[in-house]
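Field reference: "sequence" (input) and "structure" (output). Example, TerB family tellurite resistance protein:
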Amino acid sequence: MAMALLDQIRSIFDGDPGVRKVADDPVLSAELLMLFRMILADGSVSESEMVVFRRICKEAFGIAETSIDSVIEYLNDFGYETNGSQAIALFRDLDAERRKLLARHMAEIAKADSKLAESEVKLLRRTLDLLDISPVDVVKPES
């Protein structure tokens, strides 16, 4: 209880720790923006897509559940400064596994609502091309 109170007080003075983590890591910011673009690719935001996004934030990036709404707000406020090509450019120099992970996360979100829209397929295909990743690598289980 006391630790939670201290965390709340610290976040008032220091800002949200999840937002700080995202703001301090351009690659993480770019990845979250790409995931958000996938959520928006079909023109609507489904609850199932947001559930997958939140799970990825928590499990893959260690962003606390209590920070995710603030992270989303941060991305909405500052994400307009980065377009998809700029975000992808940050990934080109990363190792293949990290690029494959981005593609897998995007595919997870695209499939979350049980409907794969053509716009989602196009965004994923274009991302795979730019990252030099085979579609086979997206469907293969992680090694």
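The mean pLDDT is 84.
The radius of gyration is 16 Å.
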